[in-house]
Amino acid sequence: MSQQGSAGNVLAAVASLFFPGLGQLLQGRILAALLFFCITVFCYFFSVLVFPFIIGALFHLWSIIDAARFKSDS
């Protein structure tokens, strides 16, 4: 994944759309993938309370944007 806007980042963003954190995992960022997945799933699990659903949705959106805008150091 060479630069922002590359095909790899688009693929990672689409993957994160369906499964939060999967895009970061495709990019090799394991810690970020685990954090996005755990926080989003935890909030969606408690979505009956409405407030966690909003937080989960924001983290899911953040996961997608983060995967799309990632720039590798190499």
How would you summarize the topology of this molecule?
Elements: H1 7-18, H2 22-26, H3 30-45, H4 51-69
Q: What are the main properties of this structure?
A:
single chain, 74 residues, mainly alpha, 4 helices, elongated, transmembrane, transmembrane helix, membrane
Structure description:
This protein is an all-alpha fold and 74 residues long. The chain has one domain (7-69). Helices cover 70% and strands 0% of the residues. The protein contains four helices and no strands. It has helices at residues 7-18, 22-26, 30-45, 51-69. The relative contact order is 0.22. The chain crosses the membrane at residues 33-62.
Question: What's a concise summary of this model?
Answer:
The chain has helices at residues 7-18, 22-26, 30-45, 51-69.
Query: Into which percentage range does the β-strand content fall?
Result: under 5%
CA-to-CA gap between the ends?
Answer: 9 Å
Fraction of residues in helices?
over 70%
**What characteristic shape results from the CA principal axes?**
elongated
Total domain modules: 1
- How many beta strands in the DSSP annotation? 0
Output the helix-strand order. Answer: HHHH
Low-confidence segments, given as residue ranges, are none
